[in-house]
Amino acid sequence: MKSILLTLFAGGLGASVPFLGLPETPSLTIIAGEPHGKTAALYSVIDSDTLTVSMDGRKLTVRLDGIDAPEPGQQGGPDATSALTALVKNRPLKIVFTGRDPDGVALARIHARGIDIAERLLRDGWAWYREDRDKAIDSALLADAEAEAQLHRRGLWAERIPVRPWEWRQRREGPKVVTRSVTRSGSFQ
Known about the structure:
By secondary structure, this protein is α+β, with helices and mostly antiparallel strands.
């Protein structure tokens, strides 16, 4: 699936369009824009793969598409968060929106001074490539970046057995229980 570079703005310029299920909100309209998009400023780094950006006076939480990085309480989490902060702090950001995650958070490829942030985190060993989360077109680039970090034992790969963030979350949260009701006809709801 191809990504479309979007410009975020609040106001009445241009026609707004729905994009990959990203709903319009009264405070932020997502539209197809200039080929190079509009810059955003970092507002805060939430954790090692999520940040809040400021654009046209509005704040938006964005998760890096295609990767999963350690949680703040997980081994490597603070280092991965520091790596993300170093890549985006005091730099204009270009954002390519790709969809939303299951929690409704905007997914995007983010670039700072020409650097693809997700790719750099993978190449430096601070994240795992998640094909199931990758909505962008250049998935081979991300998979190769992770393989290079593993080969050279960079970042998290310097650990003997690094723990994947989704496994760490599952251990902390426990197994998910799914309940279903059965209708009179015997079908599940």
